[in-house]
Amino acid sequence: MVLPAKRFVDVGGRPVELHVRRSTRVNGHRIVVRYGFPPEIVVRPRATDAQIDAAIATHLEWLEKQLEKAARPRLGLERLRLTEEQGRREAGARISLIAQSEAAALGVTFERITVRDQRSRWGSCSSKGGLSFNWRLVLAPHDVLDYVVVHEVCHLVEHHHGPEFWRLLERRRPGYRDSKRWLDDHGWEILAYRPPLSIAA
Ligand SMILES: [Zn+2]
Question: pTM, whole model, 2 decimals?
Answer without folding.
Answer: 0.68
